[in-house]
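Researcher: I'm preparing a figure for a lab meeting and need a structural model of a single chain. I don't have an experimental structure, so a prediction will have to do for now. The sequence is pasted below. Please return the structure as tokens so I can convert it later.
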Amino acid sequence: MAAAMHAVWKAHRLRFIKPATTSRGALRDKTSYLLALRRPGDDARGLGECSPLPGLSLDDRPDLEARLVDLCRRLAAGEAVDGAALADFPALRFALETARLGLDAPGGALLPSDFTAGRRAIPINGLIWMADRRDMAAQIRAKLDQGFRCIKLKIGALDFWEELSLLADLRREYGPDDIEIRVDANGAFHPDEALEKLRWLADLELHSIEQPIRAGQWQAMARLVEETPLPIALDEELIGVHDPCARQALLDTVRPHYLILKPSLLGGLAAAQRWIGLAGERGIGWWVTSALESNLGLNVLAQWTATLDNPLPQGLGTGLLYTDNLPSPLSIRGGELHFDPDFDADGYWRFFEHV
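Model: Understood. Here is the structure written out token by token.
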């Protein structure tokens, strides 16, 4: 029997400043669920975020709120709740894991490091959302003016040749030594045409492509990885693969060049850490990316990522997407993510109380 815990949750709708468009469609808003824990006796408290992505997260299901109610009831009753009990709700598992971190970290630093002390920053990529050619070109120019030297473009929704032309224009102006270019197809390519498209993209000396074909086609992806001239990263492919043997089978079958780790989609920090261990054993690279969490979840991801000492640019530059975001100790300067060690963490709680 675990110690009884006061637990409550609230829903908060986040509205995008501009639609977040991928090959799967456009998001104009999304709902995050804030989970608050308070430990009786010492008044320790922690706040976590369950941030399901519509159409992608396993948590995007009609009984999520009922599961939140049940989780709070079980915690209040002193029942032991471990990760296995929430295997089908990875974003909720992430929320519980990070709220528990807060119980033992009363200040702003949940995972102390040189990053949370303000002595080191995290390199990040500049994210370019799908739009028309003119809009995407303007986004690219803005990111370069802000000091980014790694750009990630969402592709797959526009005509491929138009996207290729835009990338060619960018590469003509900035060589591989000037700027690193990543692309993310979100599974938009058909397996029969993917290799030809990757060959065209590889001519532009890109860094990598994320999820070129739809997830769940392990053999087709394995053939693509074997023949591709452009490094391939798995993203959506990892979602829902919880069994340790299945994780190993996936990596041993596909043999990707990189993994994209989104703890909200994978079941939390510990689950993502297990993927990192398997990747390391196989010589597979990786980096961490947000799943469009609010500043609350993004803060946790940034602090955790800083402890991993990965020198690659991370996908953590999403804190300015929303009109009604939570407070944040994070800021972006010169293509890097910085942490303010003087951040007042009580700002999160004031926000929570007024939701």
